[in-house]
Design brief:
alpha+beta, Aminopeptidase, six-stranded mixed beta sheet, two-stranded antiparallel ribbon, 10 strands, globular
């Protein structure tokens, strides 16, 4: 999915207060409690490599997060590297706590991220949504993303990729 950042970015009002902030080292333990099962070394490598994680906070708790990359990014789900143009951003690894789903938190983060990176001169925001994650398309479409294609891969039984488009 792609969203040109030169188009109007919708204003979003939620019925409760939120704060959006970048993940910093001092919040890492909070993030790891929120995203149980995440590898701390992987998260530190992401941050050291320049990726940013945006936390959506309410009532003092992290309730949603999403990552942004500005460089080539290996995607473990697709098992391939995503090439990112220097003027674009790539969004990945979004997660909303189950009790907060459907409340607009992902859309709020998208609006925040689009506004921030448009000010930095970025031209497009790119995201991948797994085809089986039907609800995952809605937050992106609600803030102006459109589907641009499908990444297809076929894997042999023993884990070797035999075709990708």
């Amino acid at each position: 999915m792609v969203r040109p950042l030169d188009r109007e970015i919708p204003h979003l009002v939620l019925p409760f207060e939120i704060r959006i902030e970048e993940l910093e080292e001092e919040r890492l333990s909070d993030y790891l409690r929120f995203r149980a099962g995440q590898n701390p070394q992987v998260i530190r490598r992401r941050l050291a490599g320049g990726d940013k994680c945006y936390l959506v906070m309410t009532e003092g708790q992290i309730v949603h997060c999403g990552w942004v990359a500005r460089r080539r990014k290996y995607d473990p789900y697709l098992r391939c590297t995503i090439a990112i143009k220097p003027e674009d951003i790539f969004l990945y690894d979004h997660y909303t706590h189950p009790s907060w789903r459907g409340m607009g938190l992902s859309r709020a983060r998208e609006v925040h991220v689009c506004n921030r990176y448009r000010k930095e001169g970025c031209q497009h925001s790119v995201a991948i949504v797994a085809v089986e994650n039907k609800p995952g398309f809605h937050p992106f479409e609600a803030v102006g993303y459109h589907r641009t294609g499908t990444i297809l891969s076929f894997w042999w039984l023993f884990g070797k990729r035999i075709w990708q488009q």
